Amino acid sequence: MSDQATLMCASCDVAVKSRVDAPGDDDIVFCPECGVENTLATAAAEANDYMREQESQAVMADLRRIVNGSGDGEVQDRPYAGKTFRFKAEHPINGAGCGCGSGGCGS
Predict the structure, then answer these.
(1) pLDDT over 70 at 26, yes or no
(2) What is the dihedral of CA 32, 37, 41, 45, to 10 degrees?
(3) On the chain, which terminus has fewer CB atoms closer than 10 Å, C or N?
(4) In a 10 Å sphere around its CB, with 0-12 CB exposed, 13-18 middle and 19+ buried, how is residue 31 labelled?
(5) How wide is the angle at C-alpha 95 spanned by C-alphas 92 and 96, nearest 5°?
(6) Contact 44, 7 (CB under 8 A)
(7) Is the pLDDT at 40 greater than 80, yes or no?
């Protein structure tokens, strides 16, 4: 896994841009397609939330497969009523880690 993540617009699936070459936490990043924008810090935090939500959904899907394959009953999928995200990434932004509170486990 790479140490860098690309911050992307969750709706358009394109990389966000900034008006400065090396944006800091307080600089604005935006989607060149739809125009959604926020500070880099807020967008990165939301992208990390997105990543954790995706991981959670994958774990729940694995658990459903295990329970449903055990013969002890069947767990049905529930309609997903989760949060919507404006920004996303495939792994943590800026070493934020998994969100477990250990200071960034990198897994």
Answers:
(1) yes
(2) -90
(3) N
(4) buried
(5) 65
(6) yes
(7) yes
In angstroms, the CA 78 to CA 57 distance is 11
pLDDT digits (tens, 9 = 90+) for 62-83: 887 787 776 666 666 666 667 7
How many H-runs (helices) and E-runs (strands) does the chain carry?
1, 5
Torsion (CA) 79, 81, 83, 86 in degrees, nearest 10: 60
Residues 12-22 have pLDDT tens digits of: 999 999 999 99
Look up residue 4 and give its two tokens. 């860098």
What b-and-e string marks burial along 38-55, b requiring 16 or more CB atoms within 10 Å of the CB? bebbbbbbbbbbbbbeee
Q: Dig out the tokens for 21 from the structure.
A: 């070459």
